[in-house]
Amino acid sequence: MTGGLGAIVGRAGGHCVRCRAPLSKHIPAIVVLQAFVEELLLDGSFCVYRTERAAVCESCARPVELAIATQSAICEGCEQRLLHRDGSRSPVCCSSRCEQRVRRRERRLIWSSPCDGCGNSFNPQRADARFCSGACRQRAYRQRARSRSTRGPGRRLARAAPHPRHPRGESGREGST
């Protein structure tokens, strides 16, 4: 049964991972380390592959888990009210899924840069991108071209020399008319 129970329980965003009941935003969820079972062995025992932080409802939390959950916080990924143990790692999230959501949000903010054309913030697809769109790039080019043409006749760019194998006026292909 590979991926069965772990896939269902591990992706229960907004629900208790033990009873699958929806978590209320008004009642704090308890963040626990939950073992996710991936495989049932032939002898009937379970093989645990991973443990993750997960949110459980108050009725599913064990007494030991309730006793150590003393810190109050709000999940940075889904804004669920939480109780977690003191000294847990940051950011405070209810699950690995929300941790990933927070990391991706922070990464998008790091890579955000202002457009050289309009000044709006955008997420570049390439490290050397300067404009948010083709329209901004074209607008900036036209502004540069206008400013060059108003400098005077001596400051204009010279035309590029023709390529040696394809002089102007010839297509460069044999047999063309």
Main features:
single chain, alpha+beta, 4-stranded mixed β-sheet, two-stranded antiparallel ribbon, 4 helices, 6 strands, 25% helix, elongated, disordered N terminus
Provide structural commentary:
The protein has two domains: 4-111, no CATH class; 121-151. The protein is built from four helices and six strands. The chain has helices spanning 4-10, 63-68, 96-111, 134-149, and strands spanning 29-40, 46-56, 69-74, 81-85, 113-114, 121-122. The protein has a four-stranded mixed beta sheet. The protein has a two-stranded antiparallel sheet with strand order 5-6. The longest helix is centred in the middle third of the chain and has 16 residues, at 96-111. The chain is elongated, with a radius of gyration of 30 Å.
Kindly state the number of beta strands: 6
Give the strand order of the largest sheet, numbering strands 1, 2, ... along the chain.
2-1-4-3
Total of helices: 4
Which structural category fits the helices and strands?
alpha+beta
Rg computed from alpha carbons, rounded to a whole number of angstroms: 30 Å
Low-confidence regions: 1-11
Query: How many distinct domains?
Result: 2
Mean pLDDT: 76
In N-to-C order, the SSE pattern is: HEEHEEHEEH
**Content of β-strand:** 15-25%
Helical content (DSSP H or I, runs of 4+): 25-40%
Shape: elongated
Largest sheet: 4 strands, mixed
Distance between the termini: 71 Å
Q: What secondary-structure arrangement, pairings included, does this model have?
A:
Layout: H1 4-10, E1 29-40, E2 46-56, H2 63-68, E3 69-74, E4 81-85, H3 96-111, E5 113-114, E6 121-122, H4 134-149
